[in-house]
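Module 6 notes. Inverse folding takes a fixed backbone as the condition and produces residue identities as the prediction. Think of it as a translation problem where the source language is geometry and the target language is the twenty amino acids. Below is one complete input and output pair. Work through it position by position during the lab.
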């Protein structure tokens, strides 16, 4: 394959990779489809790489800028998204113009800008694979770009074969990738960790996990198989375990107040919150402790809820890669929430007392509710809305007439709803218009999903004077045998019941009937493939996306930990924080959020606009630095192989040196005319200028071969001219 055709293929691959990264961050593949059509038409529809005129290209770039501006003003998209769309369209326009060195470099630069933007728009495994492929293709394109420039300067035929360039390019790409990975693991972890922030992408649409929840919220998300979190379980001594026999109830929100309007549950005692940083030191009221400790390492996906999930009761919680998060712990409800819905992956370690222990273990004194508040808390947890049908209480008393203790009554109600066969589990709900939902479920419909079963049991317990509340979270999960962890999906969303007994505290009850299905062979194979994909995905997240300073210490060991604590490393980390934190905070604000922030900071719109512009400039400069760095690496490694010390490049260096003294070669001026002009003004340069011009013209027009000694002599003359021009 010839040089031009080979370079053309490399650039088309770069355009496709860049557009795929852009589409991956948006979860919309429109631009990738446009790029495929444009690249296919370019490859199969153009015999020679000539392209459109420059005037038409400028007009189309102006149209692309107008489209990006309208997208910003009309749809109020993020500035970084509008800029990325403008760059993507401009890249396709440049691709269809007649190539020169500047335009080829611009195509490579825009692709690297897409990769830079992708770091804050997506955390998918596909992005990591694109970066590996991008590294190889950029190295290949740069090698061919240098070869093309060298042949242009030397005046040789550009259609000569470029065989043997792919394998060296692969070696360059592998070296660049290895150096990049090494730098990533060695650099200090900053608070504005751009690799962990999915700030532009939308978080998963998930409902049912807030301080207010309507019946049916969980039923809607149970229809989705979207992943919510990955959980790796280990014992206290660090041994991985599947925790067989342990009920895996990933507790989220506890709701104590039921209202008839719309069938809504809410938690009304959320005033008492404790600001917390690293570990829970306050008591978790109402939960018996003393079981075996189970350690959960949880990687939680970006979801539009503030709740953190874990097995209860919790002994401690530690967030890895602490980035200034504000976590509120509410010990009365046993809830942990962040200040705002999360737009990034968060990884935390929870230690819980959940391994088997006697269910009737009495509460420790420090785990009991404060005496001055216990009465009001229990009163709220036994309140029954007036709209509940009076027959519900009669049904509860009839079911529990043979029980002597509150705990036995709770077990009978659980067995009745779950195992009697009188109630059916279904997500295809039907309710009587205008009827109270819980009463309608218990007395008439007798079918529903977990929220209705949990709500029905809570209401019946309260009619018997037993404090109870409904809990929303996730139950179980899919065991991944490859990575030995659980994958919890939206389809695992679940509601259950917590009843309070003064002697033993909160006890968990699950009145929802079990649904068992035997998957077909095809479904089992699909599940196997999905588990393998989940394994690669969580490996990618743990190694790169959620890689924190804690992981850094664990990876490098004690020696590196001492280095991380040195003043020099801390100073470097503080500098990185100061530089990156404002950028991350600015990128994290959408148009509406920025308007709200104006009222808090008092900054006018022109100041915010200048900040956004500064972020874009920094992004482009970062991409430019990457291109220059790759260019230098390729030049250093392949300069002799590509014969880059040709008379053409040497004459370019000579022209740059004399230009500093005000001598600039005019269009149409021959090298000899240019040499006479320089010699007449600078007689001391005459000998060197004449020798350089003679050698250049002989090689360029006379096809003379220059020996290494001659090339070295020309370099020395050019260096001497450069030194005298300073």
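Target side of the pair, the amino acids:
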């Amino acid at each position: 394959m010839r040089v031009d055709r080979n370079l053309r293929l490399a650039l088309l691959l770069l355009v496709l990779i860049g557009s795929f990264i852009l589409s991956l961050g948006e979860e919309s593949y429109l631009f990738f489809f446009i790029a495929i059509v444009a690249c296919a038409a370019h490859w199969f529809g153009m015999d020679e790489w000539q392209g459109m005129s420059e005037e038409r290209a400028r007009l189309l770039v102006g149209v692309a800028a107008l489209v990006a501006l309208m997208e910003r003003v009309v749809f109020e998209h993020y500035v970084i998204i509008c800029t990325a769309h403008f760059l993507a369209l401009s890249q396709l326009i440049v691709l269809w113009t007649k190539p020169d060195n500047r335009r080829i470099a611009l195509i490579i630069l825009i692709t690297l800008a897409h990769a830079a933007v992708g770091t804050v728009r997506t955390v998918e495994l596909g992005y990591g694979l694109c970066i590996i492929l991008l590294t190889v293709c950029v190295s290949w394109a740069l090698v061919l770009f240098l070869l093309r420039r060298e042949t242009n300067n030397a005046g040789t035929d550009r259609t000569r074969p470029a065989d043997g360039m792919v394998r060296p390019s692969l070696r360059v790409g592998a070296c660049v990738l290895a150096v990049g990975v090494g730098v990533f693991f060695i650099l200090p972890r900053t608070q504005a960790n751009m690799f962990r922030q999915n700030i532009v992408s939308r978080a998963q649409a998930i409902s049912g996990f807030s301080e207010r929840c309507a019946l049916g919220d969980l039923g809607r998300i149970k229809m989705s198989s979207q992943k919510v979190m990955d959980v790796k379980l280990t014992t206290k001594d660090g041994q991985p375990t599947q925790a067989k026999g342990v009920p895996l109830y990933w507790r989220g929100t506890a709701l104590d107040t039921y209202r008839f309007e719309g069938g809504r549950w809410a938690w009304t005692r959320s005033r008492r919150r404790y600001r917390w940083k690293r570990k829970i030191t306050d008591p978790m009221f109402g939960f018996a402790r003393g079981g075996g400790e189970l350690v959960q390492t949880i990687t939680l996906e970006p979801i539009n809820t503030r709740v953190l999930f874990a097995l209860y009761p919790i002994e401690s919680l530690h967030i890895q890669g602490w980035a200034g998060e504000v976590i509120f712990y509410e010990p009365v409800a046993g809830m942990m929430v962040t200040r705002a819905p999360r737009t990034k992956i968060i990884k935390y370690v929870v230690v819980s007392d959940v391994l088997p222990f006697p269910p009737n273990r009495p509460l420790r004194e420090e785990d009991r509710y404060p005496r001055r508040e216990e009465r009001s808390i229990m009163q709220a947890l036994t309140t029954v809305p007036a709209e509940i049908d009076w027959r519900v209480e009669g049904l509860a008393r009839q079911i529990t007439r043979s029980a002597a203790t509150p705990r036995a009554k709770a077990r009978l109600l659980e067995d009745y709803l779950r195992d009697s066969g009188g109630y059916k589990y279904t997500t295809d709900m039907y309710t009587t218009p205008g009827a109270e939902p819980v009463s309608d479920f218990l007395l008439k419909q007798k079918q529903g999903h977990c929220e209705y079963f949990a709500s029905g049991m809570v209401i019946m317990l309260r009619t018997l004077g037993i404090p109870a509340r409904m809990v929303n979270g996730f139950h179980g999960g899919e065991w991944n045998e490859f990575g030995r962890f659980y994958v919890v999906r939206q389809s695992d969303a679940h509601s259950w019941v917590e009843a309070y007994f003064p002697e033993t505290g909160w006890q968990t009850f699950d009145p929802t009937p079990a649904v068992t299905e035997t998957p077909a062979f095809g479904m089992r194979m699909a599940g196997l493939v999905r588990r393998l994909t989940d394994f690669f995905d969580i490996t990618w997240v743990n190694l790169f996306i959620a890689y924190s300073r804690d992981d850094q210490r664990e990876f490098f060991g004690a020696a590196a930990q001492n280095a991380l604590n040195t003043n020099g490393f801390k100073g470097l980390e503080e500098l990185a924080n100061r530089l990156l934190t404002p950028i991350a905070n600015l990128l994290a604000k959408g148009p509406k959020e920025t308007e709200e922030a104006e009222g808090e900071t008092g900054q006018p719109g022109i100041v915010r606009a200048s900040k956004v512009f500064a972020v874009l400039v920094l992004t482009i400069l970062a991409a430019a630095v990457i291109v220059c760095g790759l260019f230098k690496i390729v030049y250093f490694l392949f300069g002799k192989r590509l014969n880059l010390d040709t008379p053409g490049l040497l004459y370019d260096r000579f022209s740059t040196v004399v230009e500093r003294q005000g001598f600039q070669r005019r269009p149409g001026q021959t090298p000899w005319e240019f040499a006479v002009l320089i010699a007449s003004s600078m007689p001391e340069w005459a000998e060197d200028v004449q020798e350089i011009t003679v050698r250049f013209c002989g090689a360029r027009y006379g096809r003379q071969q220059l020996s290494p000694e001659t090339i070295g002599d020309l370099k020395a003359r050019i260096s001497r001219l450069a030194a005298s021009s300073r």
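Reference fact for the lab report: Residues 553 and 559 are 9 Å apart (CA to CA).
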